[in-house]
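Our consortium's second objective concerns turning raw sequence data into structural hypotheses that experimental partners can test. To show how far this objective has progressed, the report includes one record in full. It was chosen at random from the queue rather than selected for favorable results. The single chain below, 253 residues long, was entered without modification.
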Amino acid sequence: MEEKQDLIIGRNAVTEALRSGRAVDSILVARGERSGSLGKIIGMCRERGIVVKQADSRKLDFLCGHAGHQGIVAYAAVRDYAQIDDIFALAEERGEDPFIVICDELEDPHNLGAIIRTAEAAGVHGIVVPKRRSASLSYAVGKASAGAVEYVPVARVANIPAALEDFKKRGLWIFGADSDGEDSAAADLTGPAGLVIGSEGFGLSRLVKEKCDVIISLPMKGKLNSLNASVAAGILMFEFLRRREAAAASESL
């Protein structure tokens, strides 16, 4: 039942949520349905950059517990998404080199929430996720973040590889986390940086990996060759923090 608190059900309810400026993550519309007010609602979503997806009406029935959804369901977001410029502005406000974590198709809301929670503690300036094939700012993510989602800007982009190219132009060095990378202990983790974390099942996608400047990994002494995405991200975030603070202390001497 917990997941249902994310849902806004029916044409009038969705319309009023959009009009009020409520944070809406995405819209599900019954496949082939465009009658009446649905076309207007879809137009409102496009103006606000809200993702609109088609779904079988039986899926909508299931999500709503067979309540009258009128062919449309909205997923509410626990907070508004930030803009990329907001993340860089926060780094500038703090007088720090930007440090951004990019999640490449991370789909488990508990992993995303845990990453946001650790990011807040590690001084990360923002999180970037793709608009599609990714966990979103649902209530489950907010709960898993233990409230950190209120303090860490989360931005959505249409294309992660293109976003990485933009970050490079802004002076960031892009590090991809993958098991076949060089030991993170040997890498220079100071300066403006972006850390890319891959999906739970497949790691970094090929195009994203190609856009990374350096691929780094953690030393693994056990029989398993990988860690949970949020655990690996947490270890690496604090390694970045440790190196950055050590470099800052050295400069101040």
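The partners drew two points from this record. The radius of gyration is 20 Å. The longest strand covers residues 173-183. Both points have been shared with the crystallography group to help prioritize constructs.
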